[in-house]
């Protein structure tokens, strides 16, 4: 039953690997978004600023600077200045939190910039429409390809969770061993202090001829 629950959790994690959002950015401000990505996982993203005056030229006050995405070790995979839209795609070299940051120049009066941002990783990062077009496959074959990739991701995720569980168990064993050693040493110190106190009291009473 626990394995079944774990499988449901993993499927949910994979199915939600595509984040699409819309947020506001005040001129002169910065907005950063983080995503936990596994090593060797493919990730793609795109962003665009909403034109406040639809049908008119895009105003310079609504252009942004993007640094998407920086890795946990500070490696930059995409940088663009003074733009209104952009895309990025890469394969994560290391595991951890990847951060995409957007900011704009300060303007007077302040402007509110609305940005559409979509970030996909893993199976969700694949463009299945291009796969279908390139391979000229039937709908059923395309669905089987999706299921195969999803099953592969689940398999890799289960191995990853098992490795993390083994690491946590090893950490617990090491901690328990250290605590047992510390407790034993503390007991020895307490017994030694108690013995010294008894010896000191016995010596004191003998000097005072009370014993």
The number of helical elements comes to 3
Mean pLDDT: 79
**How many strands, which pairing sense, and closed or not: the largest β-sheet?**
4 strands, antiparallel
* Spatial ordering of strands, largest sheet: 1-8-3-6
Strand content: 25-35%
Q: What is the percent of helical residues? A: 40-55%
SSE string? HEEEEEEEEHH
Shape field: elongated
Radius of gyration: 30 Å
Counted beta strands: 8
- For the record, give the distance between the C-alpha atoms at the N and C termini, rounded to a whole number: 71 Å
Name the assembly state: single chain
**SS content category:** alpha+beta
Strands, helices and their partners?
Elements: H1 2-15, E1 18-26, E2 30-37, E3 42-49, E4 64-70, E5 79-83, E6 85-91, E7 96-103, E8 112-121, H2 128-135, H3 139-207
Antiparallel strand pairs: 1-8, 2-7, 3-6, 3-8, 4-5, 4-7
Helix pairs in contact: 1-3
How is this structure best described in words?
The protein is an alpha+beta fold and 211 residues long. It is built from three helices and eight strands; from the N terminus they run αββββββββαα. The protein has helices spanning 2-15, 128-135, 139-207; strands spanning 18-26, 30-37, 42-49, 64-70, 79-83, 85-91, 96-103, 112-121. The strands form two sheets. The chain has a four-stranded antiparallel beta sheet, with no helix packed on it. The chain has a four-stranded antiparallel beta sheet with strand order 2-7-4-5, with no helix packed on it. The longest helix is centred in the C-terminal third of the chain and has 69 residues, at 139-207. It is elongated, with a radius of gyration of 30 Å. The model is unreliable at 1-17 and 131-137 (pLDDT under 50).
């Amino acid at each position: 039953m626990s394995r079944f629950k774990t499988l449901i959790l993993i499927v949910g994690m994979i199915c939600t690997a595509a984040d699409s959002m819309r947020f506001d950015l005040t001129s002169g401000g910065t907005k950063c978004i983080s995503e936990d990505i596994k090593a060797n996982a493919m990730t793609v993203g795109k962003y665009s600023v909403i034109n406040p005056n639809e049908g008119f030229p895009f105003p310079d006050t609504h252009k942004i600077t993007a640094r998407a995405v920086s890795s946990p070790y500070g490696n930059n995979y995409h940088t663009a200045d003074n733009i209104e839209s952009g895309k990025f795609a890469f394969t994560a070299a290391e595991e951890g939190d990847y951060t995409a940051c957007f900011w704009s120049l300060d303007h007077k009066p302040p402007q509110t910039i609305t940005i559409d941002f979509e970030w996909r990783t893993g199976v969700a990062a694949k463009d299945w429409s291009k796969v279908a077009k390139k391979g000229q496959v039937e709908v059923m074959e395309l669905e089987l390809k999706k299921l195969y990739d999803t099953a592969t991701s689940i398999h890799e995720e289960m191995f990853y969770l098992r490795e993390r569980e083994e690491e946590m168990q090893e950490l617990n064993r090491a901690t328990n061993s250290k605590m047992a050693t510390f407790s034993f040493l503390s007991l020895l110190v307490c017994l030694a202090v108690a013995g010294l106190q008894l010896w000191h009291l016995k010596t004191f009473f003998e000097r005072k001829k009370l014993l």
